[in-house]
């Protein structure tokens, strides 16, 4: 998996993830576990910290309150 962070002129950030076929399979499996409430959350994280600033961790969990959403999947 490859991750990138982009900082927009507005001050907002974007995160891009490039997934391999095996990454996609693992992500689908974890999302399925999350949907079935088999797990409460999971992480996408790095083990290879370098001198460059990057993404250390992305935590993914269920949102029980739909009124609080501020992003969508498209």
Features:
74 residues, alpha+beta, two-stranded antiparallel ribbon, 1 helix, 20% helix, 30% strand
**Sheet with the most strands, sense and barrel status:** 2 strands, antiparallel
Mean pLDDT over the full residue set: 92
- Class from helix and strand fractions: alpha+beta
Helix content: 10-25%
**DSSP helical segment count:** 1
Number of strands: 4
N-to-C CA distance:
20 Å
Order of helices and strands: EEHEE
Task: Assign an overall shape.
Answer: globular
The fraction of residues in strands falls at 25-35%
Q: How would you describe the overall organization of this protein?
A:
This protein has 74 residues and is of the alpha+beta class. The chain has one helix spanning 21-35; strands spanning 2-7, 13-18, 41-45, 57-61. A two-stranded antiparallel sheet has the order 1-2. The chain has a two-stranded antiparallel sheet with strand order 3-4. The two termini are 20 Å apart.
List the helices and strands and how they pair.
Blueprint: E1 2-7, E2 13-18, H1 21-35, E3 41-45, E4 57-61
Antiparallel strand pairs: 1-2, 3-4
Kindly summarize this structure in a few lines.
With 74 residues, the chain is α+β, with helices and mostly antiparallel strands. The chain contains 1 helix and 4 strands, in the order ββαββ.
